[in-house]
């Protein structure tokens, strides 16, 4: 009897436990991003409550500290069920937000925090459990109100992830920007998450709540600038009505420490018929831009400046008047300098129609900008894409990093133009880390790309989709960009763990497997799209799906065959001295190492070398067999990503589970298409048999060539 009772009890407990763990959390639509503030468990609530029995901000609230207080109300309201009341007097258990201006004793000679605060600059913060005025408090301290806002987000983040309080943090780079490639008609170039969030038609009168939530999300990461419109810009952007609209956005973003910038079209005054030329040395043109800058600053006093795409892909620029990029950039810089504005002049240039034919496209940015080094005004930065071609799934770092004295900004692409849009999972934190930590070898003892930077920009993946980014996992790319813009030494894996805990809850049964998936995901995409240093073999125009066979576009360097150079003799682009010699643009030490295929990392092999199909790889396989193995691994890993997600089903809310499951299913199909199409094509050129165990593509090459993607998004 006793036995059967305890057996029954055990069975009942088992059933209860099984039911509990099978009950998925409530549905979420992703709108709250990583600022979800869902209730903590009871013991965590008690410890947070003890840190924040009251909230104290000495001195008057400003719009920025008000944003911090509002976030605490929202955050603690969600995490604890009830937020503590703001108080005026410091007491035991207070959460104290203070700057030296608000609490002078922080700056007194006897303050143990004085030196530490001084080292934090304008934007840094420190978090500390300490004693102030005889009371035990949790202190968020900074030198400015924006530092307090960043510190507030950091404190909430530490609570959300269950991490120990961060000691202190300050950004290394002052310019941490998003670049929106948003058009005035709300289409988004390379956007895969709906329309532009900027409703230009409704502005300036109607300011969507999204703008505030956008500001909160960015401030929570430390992003402090945003370029509102596409680099392929329109003259109207700089007309009074649009300046007023930009000003309305700037008003919403300002309390969050975010400045507004605009992309300026070089020929704006000419196209608006307000000048007779766009020559940067023409006094008429100079006077127009000066008036324009003054007009903008009258409306947006803290306007950040311009980003400019000039003489690139058909855009107008100073070269149309036989002037240089420096002439153009400096002319604009002179108009902005009195207002403390900057010019971010893009180095993404390759020959305008008809010129440079035959020159390796990878060399052209360096060739144009290196000779101009030293000629740019102090408020000009050269904005350089991470690699020398174009946001490929993997590229070696651009040779301009470390090569210029002129301040250089990094341009990453957060939106996944070449990595499967927002349908394929690819966590870009690993790509950002790989690039930032790459050694430019431009100094004795090494100099990472990160160390060469004066700023960082990311091409936004934000749109009107309910989940902002097109998929839940694409939110992680916005998050990772922001965290790594703040701290270039951050590890992709730590950032992924933070994001996963904040986005799906700090349960290790969820966080650990999600981090594993994220860390595998981008390599998976590289493997099924462009392994071993292959690049730019995507479909024409929209850049989705495989098209390594394309050879009929107007410019040679628009054709995939130009980049992979596969033939009977082998595959790859020879960028050594025997080939285009793009390697000579890198530091000598780097060039030496990468000139020899044996000392070139295999992930970049075909970027720098043209090698025979029977070239022996480190694995002992031939290059042909290795290429096939990578395509197979890409497909197998895409399937594994799906399976890993399915295993998490009981722990993820149904809505987000299903939305991602559908995408991962589509990703498997995309991986299969890439694998099969590339194998079919490369086999047709190599003429080699498939080694035993490698499955033949399901269809003929002709079939793959006939696959089209009508209405693929993001291509305008
Ligand atoms: C390419 C995009 C194109 C952009 C261009 C750029 O395909 O839409 O306009 O970059 O960065 O990747 O200017």
From TrEMBL:
Sequence ranges assigned to domain Glycosyl hydrolase family 67 catalytic in this UniProt record: 164-468
GO biological process, one term: xylan catabolic process
Alphabetized UniProt keyword annotations: Carbohydrate metabolism, Glycosidase, Hydrolase, Polysaccharide degradation, Signal, Xylan degradation
InterPro entries, per database record: A-glucoronidase_C_sf (IPR037054), GH (IPR017853), Glyco_hydro_67_aGlcAse (IPR011395), Glyco_hydro_67_aGlcAse_N (IPR005154), Glyco_hydro_67_C (IPR011099), Glyco_hydro_67_cat (IPR011100), Hex-like_dom2 (IPR029018)
The keyword Hydrolase is assigned to this record: yes
Reactions accelerated catalytically: Hydrolysis of (1->2)-alpha-D-(4-O-methyl)glucuronosyl links in the main chain of hardwood xylans
Signal peptide: 1-20
Gene3D superfamilies registered for this protein in UniProt: Alpha-glucuronidase, C-terminal domain, Chitobiase/beta-hexosaminidase domain 2-like, Glycosidases
Gene Ontology CC entries for this record: extracellular region
Active site annotation, chain numbering: 313, 390, 417
MF (Gene Ontology): alpha-glucuronidase activity; xylan alpha-1,2-glucuronosidase activity
Residue ranges annotated for the Alpha glucuronidase N-terminal domain, each copy included: 33-155
Domain of life: Bacteria
Domain Glycosyl hydrolase family 67 C-terminal: 470-694
EC number: 3.2.1.131
Alphabetized Pfam families for the sequence: Glyco_hydro_67C, Glyco_hydro_67M, Glyco_hydro_67N
Top EC class for this record: hydrolase
Family membership noted in the UniProt record: Belongs to the glycosyl hydrolase 67 family.
Quaternary structure (record): Homodimer.
Protein name: Xylan alpha-1,2-glucuronidase
Organism listed in the record: Duganella lactea
